[in-house]
Each structure stands twice: as C-alpha cells, then as structure tokens.
Amino acid sequence: MLRRLLGEKSKVAKQGSKTILIIDGNALCHMAKYTTGGLTYMGEPTGIIFGLLKRILGLARRFKTNRFVFCWDAGVTYRHVDFPDYKRKRWDQKMMDAQTKAEHELMVVQLINSRYYLKAMGFGNAHHCYHYYEGDDLIAMFVNKLFKKYSPIIVSSDNDLYQLLGKADMYHLHKKKIFTSVDLRKQFGISPTSWALAKAIGGCNGDGVPGIKGIADAKKPTSKALAYIRGELKKGKILDRINSIEGAAIQCRNLQLVELPHRTCGKTLILRRDTFTKRKFIEVFDNLYFKSFLEDKKLKEWEDLFL
C-alpha cells in the first residue's frame, strides 16, 4: 500500500509565502479533544492528534500557506514563582476527581505525542516551552522576531495575546475570523500596547490573577479598566483605588504576570526550515491508522498544500 501511495520520489516543500501561522498548540489540541478526542488505535488514544492534523490542513487551505510555528505550554512557570496562585483554580479543577485527573493525563500524553508526530511529518517548528515559560511567551517571542519580515497570524482564542496585535493579526479559533488591532480599537477603544495594562488593572479571571477591587477583567468594553485607559474616569472610588499606592502595587505585580513575553525571556528563537515529504506524511498517517488522510483525494490535498 505504501509503495502505491508514494509513487515518485517526493520533493521538499518550497516555502515562499510571507504568511506564517503561529499556533497556540494547547488551544488547538483542546478543541480537538471535544470533537475527535475519543478516537483510539490499538488501545492508544489518537483523537486529539487526528483533530490537530485536521485543523492544520484546514488552516493551510484557508490561509494558503504551509508555514507553521507551534507553541506549547510548560507546567510550572516563572509566573507561579512570582505568584503561587497563578492558574491554581484551573489546575484544581483538573484534579478534582479521579476521572478528570485521568482524562487530563491522557490529554498530556497526546500533547507530547503531537509534537513528536509533527516533527516526524517534517514540521521544523514544534516548540515546547523551555525553562518554565508558557506557550504565550513563545508566541510573543516569535511575533517579535518575525513581524518585520513576514506576516504572522496568531491562531488562538486567548485574549491575553491581543497585546501582540499590530505586529500580528489573530485568527480567533472560536469566532473563526481574523481579529486585528483595528478591531481591538473599535471594540474596546484602546491600542494593543495598552492591553496588558488593562489586564493588570482588571485582573485575569482565567489565570486567577486578581485585579483592583471593584474592577472587572477587561473582557467587555464596559470594564472600568478600559474606561480608565480611555480617560473616561474623572472621579470616584474606582479612580482613587487605581491611583492609590495599593493600586499601583497591584498593577506592578500583575504586569509581570500578564505582559508578553515574560520579562526574563531572553533566548533567541530560531525559525527552522520545514522538511515535508510525501513519504513522511504517509508513514505518520499509516502508523496512526488515519485512513481518511490516506485516501487519494485527501492525500492529494496534503500534497498540494505542503509539498
């Protein structure tokens, strides 16, 4: 079967596109968990990997590029050192019972396997966090490295990444549309460079970062944090709290948690060249028993987009 599928010797892909998709690997895998996550082969879970590859194919088709950079989270990070309660609620929810814990552990195994199989397919940029940083830090570092020469598009649904708009656009995974710095200004009335400050003032519910008392996470345009940055707060208790010594201390602490990349990130990241071949693709699809990707029509689509 493999000989028939391989046909002539494959060539390494040509990569002339200026568009580079910078992928929030954890977000993409979590989406796959709730769609194809139940798939297994020979007793081993493969559904998240299948869902990830299916989305990669769709993104390549949508944006007409075969250039991908994948970024995954680490476990404990420097933010936990700065603030021990960072993401604690999220972690506690995963560990609340034996079933949830087992599902989380299986998820982690597939996340690790995903990086392995992407590299086996020839993706040169499947990056796991180094030295206690987060995937968001890697995304920010790549955006800062690439935006002057390329057209990076962040693929995620994490609004923490709005601070990178202007240097990159963002494809929102849940809304399935591009979100830009222009959209940010229209919706929230501030620039991307002010987004981290808004999160520092209002806190971040998802990451367990408390803001100044009485101020909500900047998820809606009505947030007092956004109103303050827009210059709309002229007087009152909220303004007094923001300008107080305690308010300044909270902002300083939170900026260290929400700014991207983390202040200690200093490593230079390398954009590696991809080495796709038809043989690599087929071997991975065959090993994982992803029969639909081996069908002539779908395999041709992989070839047309990546080779």
Describe the structure.
With 307 residues, the protein is of the alpha/beta class. It has two domains: 19-179 and 265-295, Rossmann fold (3-Layer(aba) Sandwich); 187-258, DNA polymerase, domain 1, CATH 1.10.150. The protein is 48% helix and 11% strand. The protein contains 15 helices and ten strands. The strands form three sheets. It has a six-stranded mixed sheet with strand order 5-4-1-6-7-8, with helices on both faces. Strands 2-3 form a two-stranded antiparallel sheet. A two-stranded antiparallel ribbon has the order 9-10. A hairpin with a 4-residue loop joins strand 9 and strand 10. Helix 9 (195-202) crosses helix 12 (245-258). The longest helix is centred in the middle third of the chain and has 24 residues, at 98-121. The chain is globular. It starts with a helix and ends with a helix.
Summarize the structure in short.
It contains 15 helices and ten strands. By secondary structure, it is an alpha/beta fold.
Topology:
Blueprint: H1 2-6, E1 19-24, H2 25-33, E2 40-41, E3 44-45, H3 47-63, E4 68-72, H4 78-82, H5 88-94, H6 98-121, E5 126-128, H7 135-146, E6 151-156, E7 169-172, E8 177-179, H8 181-188, H9 195-202, E9 203-204, E10 209-210, H10 224-229, H11 237-243, H12 245-258, H13 278-287, H14 291-294, H15 296-306
Parallel strand pairs: 1-4, 1-6, 4-5, 6-7
Antiparallel strand pairs: 2-3, 7-8, 9-10
Helix pairs in contact: 2-3, 9-12
